[in-house]
Design a protein that fits this description.
Blueprint lengths: L9 H23 L11 H7 E3 L4 E18 L6 E6 L4 E8 L2 E8 L4 H7 L3 E10 L3 E15 L17 E17 L7 H5 L3 E3 L3 E16 L19 E21 L2 E20 L2 E21 L3 E16 L2 E17 L1
Antiparallel strand pairs: 1-9, 2-3, 2-4, 2-15, 3-7, 4-5, 6-7, 7-8, 8-10, 10-11, 11-12, 12-13, 13-14, 14-15
Length: 346
């Protein structure tokens, strides 16, 4: 029996997001271009026309959030050969409070249903992150360690697998991600990341800005010395028997962000795309290599919601992608987070 295998790796999602971003921000960016000034000075009069501040108000919120560190291993020569590794991540519910641009949030892991445990198993997760949103500078810092993965396209590692079955499991597979991003907002008198992601300010008029991000990360993938690709599938991956990899990454990524405002509703999109230098130490079969090479870095941020006089609510999405080439393999590592929230200012 001939079976058609779907091809829908993360690269297709990245292309779709990229073209959506160009469609939604291209015209506003061109309209704004003549008045872009690099490293412009703070101008309180201009800022008051675009951004409303709440310096003395307190705010509280409840939220639902999920984060994950997933990756895809694919062949550079056989289009249909790719394996999608995903942890058994779960939802977190929490509360938070903010005052004078400082905030604290506490979350609790929600129980996982028996049906989800049967399909995904369990992952041992240590995931911490923090973000800073200033007028001109912002940044993220994160530490992620995940142990225990499943293969979402199970047919690629098990020909007997069918949709609806428990996913094939790699209980000893570990992924590690440590690092951070720092970025600069050029048009900071008109464009506010703080309004889009912490709601401690309000964007009252649509505006955008060119952006520049510097990133540094250490990533590690290990399977206790075992192969990532089953022996029966190695021919599709040019016999690249990948078993371990550690990657040190430094990248510089230009970008553009735009916040659309209509009455009390807003939507903010940002996209960074850049290149960097990467030091690789990896094991392929019984061979250990140390090399340096360039790599690609993408970062996409989306926030949308309602901003009332007292109540506010919405959601946010962050996609951070690092593309790693190891001989004839590509590792597309994705750190993703998503949250829904509702809050009140007083």
């Amino acid at each position: 029996m001939i079976r058609i295998q779907p091809y829908f790796p993360y690269v297709m999602v990245q292309k779709a997001v990229f073209f959506l971003f160009l469609l939604l921000t291209g015209i506003p960016a061109l309209a704004q271009f003549p008045r872009i000034v690099l490293f412009e000075k703070p101008d309180p009069q201009v800022k008051r026309q675009y951004i409303r501040d709440f310096p003395l108000q307190k705010t509280g919120r409840v939220f639902l959030a999920t984060r994950s560190l997933s990756f895809e291993l694919r062949s550079r020569t056989v289009r249909q050969a790719f394996i999608q590794y995903q942890p058994a991540s779960s939802m977190v519910m929490g509360i938070g409070g903010y005052y004078r641009r400082l905030g604290l949030e506490v979350g609790f892991k929600l129980p996982t249903s028996d049906s989800r445990l049967e399909r995904f198993g369990r992952s041992r997760i240590l995931d911490w992150s923090t973000s800073f949103y200033g007028d001109r500078f912002g940044g993220d810092a994160f530490f992620q360690r995940y142990r225990g993965y499943v293969v979402r396209n199970g047919y690629e590692v098990d020909q007997q697998w069918r949709s609806g079955n428990p996913y094939p499991r790699y209980p000893d597979l570990t992924a590690f991600n440590l690092g951070g991003n720092v970025y600069y907002v050029f048009n900071h008198n008109r464009f506010s990341y703080r309004a889009a992601f912490t709601q401690m300010e309000q964007q009252v008029k649509s505006a955008g800005s060119f952006l520049l991000m510097a990133s540094g990360t250490i990533m590690n993938f290990a399977n206790d010395g075992q192969a990532f690709i089953p022996a029966g599938r190695l021919a599709n991956y040019n016999l690249n028997d990948f078993r371990y990899g550690r990657f040190y990454n430094l990248a510089l990524s230009p970008g553009y962000g735009y916040t659309f405002v209509r009455d009390q509703f807003y939507a903010s999109l940002s996209l960074f795309m850049g290149l960097g230098l990467q030091h690789q130490k990896y094991t392929m079969g019984s061979t250990i290599d140390n090399i340096g090479r360039p790599f690609r870095k993408n970062n996409f941020r989306l926030a949308a919601g309602y901003f009332g006089d007292s109540f506010y609510g919405g959601g946010g999405l962050l996609l951070d992608n690092t593309s790693i080439r190891v001989k004839d393999l590509v590792i597309a590592a994705n750190s993703n987070s998503f949250r829904l929230f509702a809050g009140y200012r007083f």
